[in-house]
């Protein structure tokens, strides 16, 4: 351990490991970790503690038909290709290499108290890359077609991607393109989201591989 | 009875095997639902989060990388992130951190053989948390299980932000020591 950067990184490591550090502080620590294996090891230990703490939440029996409902969703959506995700490993692995799984959480989208958003009208859905890593958020309105705001903040290589709405059966439909610069990108627009389970909004690289996706089921939006 | 290893189940899901998925859901649903319920404090929200976490695990099974962590920690990370997202949209209800721990014996409702499999780490952590000063214990439960940020902990506990950060950090450092010390004995 040496220097002020190490001290700062270690001070922040517990919150980073717990997934509750955001914005500038997180970015600074991640930058340091990429160059400091000692602090990275320290973070890994903190991440193990954080996982252990999560495990201390009590195990509880879910509602009676919980497993059966998931089961039927899975069997219904089975035709959807899982294999295409395999191709995203190579794409995201390089970008993800410097990161520990527990550090990647983006919470930059949330309604502020100054601008309250009508709760039922807008949902925030996580955009997920490989390995459950979160790369950003999609805000979706319940209108039809839905107003969609895509925010990518992390872990997606710079470049231009097409945004596609995909459902378990049927061909993907391109609704726009998004450019990621310096790890960040935003897209705002309208997208027709079929009222069905298993609908996702995907970022698709020019090679055709899905880089990340958000599950934007309108069927779940009813509250 | 499924004696298949966790990561073998995930590998099975990656090939699109729905039976592997059923076994996976059966194995992890209580842990996932329990975490989601603890974080959100309501049945409906917990059900939605737990369901989405398990479906996400199914959809992303092909990119699970065992070198990056265990299946359990992968799944808990997914669940925690989903629950935190949900909390960002609607405020969490007040959960008493002490109640969470009282609620959670190291290996609830398990036979001795299975309890041993739950890993010594869980027992050690539970013990270490119990010996923390009350204020640190509350902070680590709020941050680590309920998923509150340091700022939210400071608001909930009515303490300065710096104090909340210090409590979280000190608690994590002590827990880390508790784990590593035990290992070297
Ligand atoms: Zn360092």
Could you describe the 3D structure shown?
Helix content of chain A is 32%, strand content 25%. Chain A has 223 residues and is an alpha+beta fold. Among the domains of chain A are: 3-54, no CATH class; 122-221, Sandwich (Immunoglobulin-like). In chain A, α1 (3-18) packs across α2 and α1 (3-18) packs parallel to α3. The longest helix of chain A is centred in the first third of the chain and has 19 residues, at 37-55. With 185 residues, chain B is mainly alpha-helical. Helices cover 72% and strands 0% of the residues of chain B. Chain B contains 10 helices and no strands. Chain B has helices spanning 6-14, 18-40, 43-59, 71-89, 97-102, 112-117, 120-130, 134-144, 150-157, 161-184. Residues 105-118 of chain B have low confidence and may be disordered. The interface between A and B is large, with 67 and 85 residues. Bound molecules: zinc ion (ZN). Zinc ion binds at residues 5-6, 9, 32, 36, 38-39 of chain A.
Order of helices and strands of chain A: HHHHHEEEEEEEE
Overall 3D shape of chain B: globular
Span between termini of chain A: 51 Å
Number of domains of chain B: 2
Rounded to an integer, what's the Rg of chain B over CA atoms? 17 Å
Largest sheet of chain B: none
Distance from first to last alpha carbon of chain B: 35 Å
Low-confidence stretches of chain B: 105-118
